[in-house]
Design goal:
Elements lengths: L6 E5 L7 H12 L5 E5 L7 H11 L7 E6 L10 E6 L2 E6 L5 H4 L6 E4 L16 H14 L9 E2 L14 E2 L3 E9 L5 E6 L8 E11 L2 E11 L11 E5 L4 E6 L4 H5 L6 E5 L1
Parallel strand pairs: 1-2, 1-3, 3-5
Antiparallel strand pairs: 4-5, 4-6, 6-7, 8-9, 9-10, 9-15, 10-14, 11-12, 11-15, 13-14
């Protein structure tokens, strides 16, 4: 039976160079009829943590059995393992560097293989700097055409997969504690604290922030109104709300919260209700 699954691409390649187009060309050489959807190619270079969040935020909006090819791979050509993972929503194809740990924190991996069967690569002698083209694109295309995971390589234990050191959120006596896990294009500071922790009423929260500046740790507090939209505060003022992704978010109405507060991914937050 003919299978034609969607492919979704996420990389840090940008669109200035040929890399994304070449990956799509490698996919089309396997089957030009495959549907290829771009999630984003603007992940900051080598930023695996940002890629982790974006893939985790995106995967649920795609059809069942989508093949997600994600390539943010500063360890390309080293001993890090190339992977294909089956989970309930589809397949993940890319490097074993923690990129998939966000999705796998929400979805149980059903089967995992290391991509050792070069029959499914573009070439048995892949470039040491472009596995996206020579391994991941073509393996993903074969999966999208219905090839079985077992044919692609050797089974490995899911618990052996690399995970990223993202702090977990926790409930505290006075509120909850977490960190910034992503900063979007608008400078919105997206925390790792689920939105259901936000009080279901208008009011304010106090946020105690710890950040490091020039190897010196600085602590300060801010008071933020709770809102449902960015316009629930005046232009130029900060607000806390639940973003479309379902996490608590600090935003600046009409501006960039990251620039105003000087925070980055990993900054810890202690939120007092």
């Amino acid at each position: 039976m003919f299978v034609n699954r969607a492919i979704a691409l996420l990389t840090d390649f940008g669109l200035k160079d040929i890399y994304v187009g070449v990956m799509k060309g490698a996919i089309a050489q396997i089957n030009p009829q495959l549907s290829v959807i771009d999630i984003t190619h603007d992940i900051p270079p080598q930023d695996i943590i940002a890629a982790r969040f974006c893939l985790m935020d995106a995967y649920r909006y795609f059809p069942p059995k989508t093949v997600f090819i994600a390539v943010v791979d500063p360890g390309v050509g080293t001993k890090r393992r190339p992977l294909a993972i089956e989970f309930s929503q589809g397949f993940l194809v890319g490097p074993d560097n923690g990129l998939f740990s966000g999705v796998l924190s929400q979805e149980k991996p059903l089967r995992v293989v290391e991509l050792t069967n070069s029959q499914y690569w573009r070439t048995p002698h892949p470039s040491s700097t472009f596995h996206g083209r020579d391994i991941f694109a073509t393996v993903g295309a074969h999966l999208a055409c219905g090839e079985s995971l077992e044919q692609l390589g050797d089974a490995i234990a899911p618990e052996s997969l690399i995970t990223l050191p993202i702090p977990t959120y926790e409930k505290t006596e006075k509120g909850f504690k977490g960190c910034i896990q992503y900063v979007d294009h608008f400078g919105n500071l997206i925390t790792n604290i689920p939105g259901y922790f936000l009080p279901q009423k208008q009011g304010t929260v106090i946020i105690n922030i710890s950040k490091t500046v020039k190897n010196t740790q600085t602590k300060f507090s801010i008071s933020l109104p709770i809102g449902q939209t960015y316009n629930d505060t005046k232009t130029g003022e900060l607000i806390m709300l639940i973003g479309s992704h379902g996490w608590l978010e600090i935003a600046l109405n009409g501006g960039n919260a990251q620039n105003k507060l000087g925070l980055k991914i990993g900054t810890t937050l202690d939120i007092i209700e």
